[in-house]
Amino acid sequence: MQVFDASSMIYAWDNYPIRQFPGLWEWVSNQIKGKNLVIPIVAFQEVKNKIPDCATWLEMNDIHKIAISNEILQDAMRIKKLLGIVNDKYHPKGVGENDLLIIATTRSLNTDLVTEEKQLTLPKEPAKKKIPAVCAIKEVNIPCLNFIEFIKRSNEIFR
Q1: How many helices (H) and strands (E) does the chain have?
Q2: pLDDT, tens digit (0-9, with 9 covering 90-100), for 108-144
Q3: 116 three-state secondary structure
Q4: What's the CA gap between 21 and 138, in Å, rounded?
Q5: What is the DSSP string of 7-46?
Q6: End-to-end CA distance of the chain
Q7: Which of 57, 90, 102, 150 is 20 to 30 A distant from 29 in Cα terms?
């Protein structure tokens, strides 16, 4: 199972149009139906707000939207504390509340996170870390990959 961040779903939708890559989207649909690809509810809402037709397609394919449980919320608060974020004073260059919920959701499922976020230079200030840098923290420890790595890892051949 893979957890998708909004950034990867939006990237895929924008860069691989269904009319030009029908085999890819048929495969993605099968991954969704087999629950091999899921999305946290907060990431789904981000997709819906930015690209409504992508959200409609995801819903038509019965994407499993992971709700935010108390366990996920508690883990997100633990990660927030690790980053030194006090109250809701998130750094504009770092993760936000939804990002922490996405990371905590992925941890709850003990799987990988597919995200397009990257950070070439790791900041010294923990609150400035983006999703992959937060995932790499020893106490978080979530493997991240991007959409292309997700496709390559599948070994699927699209015709």
Answers
A1: 8, 5
A2: 999 999 999 988 788 888 889 999 999 999 999 999 9
A3: coil
A4: 38
A5: HHHHHHHHHS-TTT-HHHHHHHHHHHHTTSEEEEHHHHHH
A6: 24
A7: 102
